[in-house]
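Re: folding output
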Amino acid sequence: MFKTIIDAFKIKEVRRKILITLLLLLLFRVGSWLPIPGISKEVFKNTIEADQNGFLGLLSTLSGGALANASILALGVSPYINASIIIQLLQVAFPKLGELAKQGEDGKKKINTYQRIAALILAVAQAIGITVAFGSQGLFDTRLWGGSTTLASIFTIVILVAGAMFTVWLGERITEKGIGNGLSLLIFVGILSSAGTAILAAITSIFANVDLIWNLIVFLLAVVFVFGFIVFIDGSERKIPVQYAKQVKGRKTYGGQSNFIPVRVNGSGVMPIIFASALLSFPYMIISIVGSEETAAGYNKILGTGTPLYIALTAILILFFAYFYSQMSFKPEDISKNLQQSGGFINGVRPGKDTTAFLGKVSKRITLFGALFLAFIALVPSVVFSLLGGELAILNSAFSATGMMIVVSCALEFQKQLEAQMITRNYKGFLNK
């Protein structure tokens, strides 16, 4: 990957896109440290630390600590992610909405517009929830507002919503002008920032307690193993061999070649984990808006991160969403029709319904293995890391399963995008010659 980046900087057009990407990411990180005027940063920080393994802790990690810093970009990209999840689910429930995605660029623009509207609504809901939840803890400095808590609350909500939509705008500009998926890169940078801060805090603790060094070594070795395992599974796929029949048209012979249909083990990526986390954390957000602190504390006790019920529901939801996402992305009927129209067939399988059934059977088996892998990654590392406990517990939140999956997926996707840019540029140079 490092060689790819070095080679990319030698190409002027690609180098410009990389610099634009880095500049916009830097702007995002600067915004993650700019505090909202008129509020107490300590209230945010203390509340996040108390809920380090809960919904607020996850939200702060994905935003690169912006929520703990009480910054103008505290909500990060979470409203847009949740909006994307809702729109994808609605595409299945409402076929007319699903047809928009198949109408080319115009359909995609309409889908993106719906996602922005949904993201705006969710950003308002999250901003209200956070403001109400923190407002009773002495959050506001009402001297700026003539002693009015209402004005201070409205101002904070407006800033949080504006920051969330500005983050979405930054992500879209990176996608358009830079390299890679902008929103994914923002999450990637945020998680790396949180991880770096956590490692620095852990190293500081080790100087105070030398006995912790072995815990840190074991933890980092476990992280390296998990990262390697994720990369291995991410590149794994089942190749279904396809043979194309020879066709004689005029004096030329077409076909007669062999190819394969790749079925990825983890074709859904990190989406099932994000879907499951979003569903389980959504009730907490609603409770924080309309409920009391005792109700929120009771919810965390029963269904908080790490509780047996939370682990069981997370595993079930990951399995469900893995199959749900697989049905959306891999359609055996369409693949079977395309093969039959192009004169292709799978050895030992009849074209038509038999091919559809065979592809569906293979897809279900591969999806089951991928879903079990996601459930393992989402639950087992977090449980093992939390056993270290003590002063290194902060590393557990920084290296969460969702975070590690996103980091690996974004890094691999960025490399593919960079290689694609270089290949395209080389082809242009060849044609110009």
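--- second protein (sequence, then structure) ---
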Amino acid sequence: MATTLVKTDFEFPGQTAVYHGKVRDVYTINNDIMVMIATDRISAFDVILPEGIPYKGQVLNQIAAYFLDASAEIVPNWKLAVPDPMVTVGLKAESFPVEMIIRGYLTGSAWREYKNGCREICGVKLPDGMRENERFPEPIITPTTKAAEGHDENISREEIIAQGLVSEEDYKVVEDYTRKLFALGSKMAQEKGLILVDTKYEFGKRDGKVILIDEIHTPDSSRYFYAEGYQERFEKGEAQRQLSKEFVRQWLIDHDFMGKEGQVMPQMTPEFVESVSDRYIELYEHITGRKFVKAEGADLAARIEGHVTDCILNLKK
């Protein structure tokens, strides 16, 4: 089994803060630059799973960089450089405390709620009679709060503005950017024989301007179906072939784990871990059209530290 990076503890030049998230570790340099390290940790149901996934961090980071570059002309973003396969360095922004989730199809948590009788999500009314994996006439935006710990909570556009989480002026920009990014991501997925089913975006503000931050269109933040056979499977009520983290969630559900109190995390066998790694690599190659090149290095931390330090020193010049 390949080496994984599940924990970081760096001291970079000019480091002023560090934040360890569920999957990413973010280091702040001189209160102005962000060093975002995509670790090999994997989370589901807001719980970090006990085993790291080989090459997962590299996959996430390189897919995100690919889409940040592709969308930069329509939505400004934070990215400055990718000094290491697992690292993106970019501009620090004041992040909005909401995640913009946009859905093109009724699936995942939205379907689970709908199946239980829910007909309104985040202030968006849903018609009766929809089926699992059915396409919405138009994509719907269903934001959530960004919880530091525990579960994110659904929230409506009106509640976001009323609570002052995002101003009405900024929210209009964020909503517009969300739709533009989803349209571009859907088009790029379609060209590769995939359907971008749903995804999430995070935004912040820097120098008075709204910018896209964090990752974009990765299997951790997005769900993809294979376009071939979608309609036939939908009509038969069969599960869709998908490239996303949903198969990990489904594996956990099948083993009676949904992150609820008293539930026991199932054992992740080496075979299962390898299969998850293979799925991540498959998505990278499918969505980018590029061959995935496994970055070598027995000591991932030392490799990253050297690359990031060089990058920081060059940015100061």
